[in-house]
């Protein structure tokens, strides 16, 4: 962990928020969390041409600027040349060197080690494990907006359909962007819907691509887990070209392979470890990107970028006993020892961006078009359709089961200008713009063998009744005005209106302010409202997951089965946020920020209105699903289905504290120390009911909303560099706070109960990350290190609450991962 700046903003909203944060600290009673801003190093990175406030807004080659607090930021502001230390909003900066310094080959897992307010799922299963999701501030991944060079990134087509806090999300899969092409990342921890539109409730992640017109960088990362599995290999390469001193082309690509890990408990049917359900899926990903800009004139620049990624991934399902095939000799001869169905994903993801920007009559202008698409094709492998075999005598073992397509096309015009007038002593920055976005979502049918008769076992195919294509248009306009009320008092006002052809109109606003009492003490604060429009997937997705003795489904909210059981049309989620804090340097070089926040989120979208047994059987049949033989007699939670609904109102409160301090040891080098703490708590304020008056949530789903994310996260440590920068040693501790879940019983008097659950605490965990770097030459360096080097694991689930005895760790949380320790060798070269 090298350098990261986290200048958090400060609220003028005062006592109620600070009091709430104090209560959070008392409730947690152990420690706190927010990513400690790893220390400021003398790291540099390229600044996009549009970021410099000069008479020529599109300078020829990208300009190198200092990192840390001196970095010019583009997220959360419409002004040019704003430095991070002067930002009116809280912006964390994560450099490419920081990302590679974690030793992780994926962007998602790198950020999770650097940002305490950012979490990832503990583990995954089914299709949800095959998309890399992130969450900010303990909210669903859909509440975080991802931009690339300030432009909205398209989302994945793969909905996270399994139970847990991420259920229902179709976020941006950030690992489909090559890590080699990332210059730095700006993370705005602030409600920003008024500036950027839907989804920016928890914050904004803006990925800035490299724009250097020279150089070549190569990197190899090799690692393995403490259990001896999960081998990972990453190869990364990028380089830049100069276009006649008037522009640049930067090209890069990644290759990443990850093997399966297996963390399952013994299957209680066989008392062996043959069931490999629990663990990291296998995946291979190839991704490439190109970024280019060219100054047509001194005041007009053309720019373009493109990314493409292909992923093949496989996830294990529950093991099927040989006895299940006793009546089907065709399959029994193929699987004499039983079988494990596999979900296999082949994904193609691409995005194209093109535009022009420049200045005219004092106005900065930017006209752009962004087209993105994600296509996911799921196969069911090593499986059966025993009903089809009985009827036809055929014995397929692989099935084309499901396919999904997500398309987004955004066209935008942005304008900004700084005015100076005789009636106001300070400059007034005015920005505005408009955009049109087309969104489409499609569900394709599986092969007939995957959905007819008893369907493909483990991962049934999509039947024609649940396939289709849906689209909508989104038009938006915004206005942003910023100025000073006094010499040291900034203020920023933003407003936005959007129209969705399926869910109607939204209006959002934001007011931010900052007052600098001195160069070493300032306060900042924000009050805003925001929204998340239901995604097309949340409105129309339906699917069925089948286990050996159970099945669960999600049906579309507007389907016959859902409407017959009290479903209603989805509404946008809406939020009201208040944030504030201080920025202080109590002694020279000690930088401290303390911030508090409160997010009231209304009409949250999650599956609700769960129905069970015969009622679920009827609803699934009404929607065209084929169910296993005998399932009409399954009881309780053996057979269940639900639909997406506006289920609840919640309140999320938190506190972020960061501190950085450098120490100079003279001829013995120097060290950079950092600490960051994040406290986060979500409470249920109101639960909705269906049109029949039934509660939409049970205790298990309330826990997904309120206690599935860590109550706290701490990151602290330091990095020592030798006097001539030949050696670097980094050690950091991460503490993950407690999560609480409501577990289903699989034995005893409450077996498969839908109203009685076991309250399970996943207790806090400490992990240690360490690395040693040796700079072999000025161009070559090697790092050996490890994450979670003492191989800590989540708390073990009681045996009576494990389906078939297998899920030893609870997957539906976002605390410590279940892979254990990870040890790596990283070699890089820069030319």
From TrEMBL:
Keywords: Cell outer membrane, Membrane, Receptor, TonB box, Transmembrane, Transmembrane beta strand, Transport
InterPro entries associated with the record: Beta-barrel_TonB, Beta-barrel_TonB_sf, Plug_dom, Plug_dom_sf, TonB-dep_rcpt-like
Transport among keywords: yes
Entry's localization field: Cell outer membrane
Topology of this chain in the membrane: Multi-pass membrane protein
Database matches in SUPFAM superfamilies: Porins (SSF56935)
Residue segments, region Disordered: 34-64
Keyword Transmembrane carried by entry: yes
All copies of domain TonB-dependent receptor-like beta-barrel, residue ranges: 322-789
Domain TonB-dependent receptor plug: 84-204
Family: Belongs to the TonB-dependent receptor family.
Name used for this protein in its record: TonB-dependent receptor
Organism: Gluconobacter potus
Source taxonomy: Bacteria, Pseudomonadati, Pseudomonadota, Alphaproteobacteria, Acetobacterales
